[in-house]
Amino acid sequence: MKRLTITTLLAVAILSGCSSTEEVVPDVPPAELYVTAQQALQSGSWTTAIERLETLDSRYPFGAYSEQVQLDLIYAYYKNDDLALGEATIARFNRLNPAHEKSDWVLYMRGLTQMAQDRSFMHDIFSIDRHDRDPEPARKAFRDFKRLLDRYPNSQYAADAKARMIFIKNRLADYDLATVDFYIRREAWIAAINRSQQIQKLYPDTQAARKSLPLMLTAYEKLGLQEPIENTKKLIALNPVN
Question: So which residues are the signal peptide here (predicted)?
Answer without folding.
Answer: 1-21
